[in-house]
Specification:
3 helices; 54% strand; mainly beta; 10-stranded mixed beta sheet; globular
């Protein structure tokens, strides 16, 4: 049964800050500039600002949010240089509800798109399949190990910059949870919809369980060279 405390209208704005909980996978990479240029779906404001460094793919099962539960797949190519600061930026992202699409764009400038998710869950494994307009463009299997450790943005701070309405929106989300080492298996990706991860191997895959996250009100900045 749906919780009565989130908006029923898919176009209604649930203003930041947001508090969310859930589970998910983080895949860490070192993408080359050539890979990002060819496969990274960079927006115009990102193309001249890409530096490289650690990139990530995240698959998230949000169990609670101000707009209800939803699933998410996102791509962070690596670090970008904006206003003389090194920050992360999302270049491709899909979510499973239109409410999340609308709110992600309006609250933080995150370029969310709608897709259908199938998330098959077992005790220590997950099978995830994602579809756009009936076309399967992403499939992957994950297996979790028993090796666990705490994870938090207190230790690994995260700053995300997106562009919206001719301004930069800088957000510093906070999160914490328990992380488990995991393995990625049987990945299939259509490069028409998402970066072709079959061409690269993750340096680290972790599953984060029972995380708590807060997306605050962003800070607005003008573009600077």
């Amino acid at each position: 049964m749906e919780s009565p405390d989130f908006a029923k209208d898919e176009n209604e704005i649930a203003c930041a800050p947001w508090k969310l909980t859930g589970n998910g996978y983080i895949l860490l990479y070192r993408f080359t500039k050539a890979f990002v240029a060819e496969h990274g779906f960079l927006a115009d404001f990102q193309k001249e600002k890409f530096v490289s460094g650690w990139g990530a793919v995240m698959l998230v099962d949000y169990q609670n949010s101000p707009v209800g539960p939803y699933h998410e797949l996102l791509f962070i190519p690596g670090l970008f240089s904006f206003n003389k600061k090194k920050v992360f930026s999302i270049s491709k992202i899909y979510v499973s509800t239109q409410s999340s699409v609308v709110n992600g764009i309006e609250n933080w400038g995150i370029p969310k798109e709608f897709a259908d998710f199938q998330w098959g869950k077992k005790q220590i494994s997950d099978h995830i399949a994602i579809f756009k307009d009936g076309v399967s463009f992403f499939q992957a299997d994950f297996i979790r190990s028993r090796i666990c450790f705490p994870i938090s943005t207190t230790i690994l701070p995260l700053t995300i910059v997106q562009a919206h309405k001719d301004k930069l929106m800088l957000t510093k989300p906070k999160s914490s949870g328990m992380a488990y080492l995991a393995k990625l298996q049987n990945i299939k990706v259509s490069s028409d919809f998402f970066p072709d991860l079959t061409k690269v191997k993750p340096l680290l895959v972790i599953r984060v369980e029972n995380f708590k996250m807060e997306f605050p009100v962003p800070a607005y900045h003008a573009f600077q060279k």
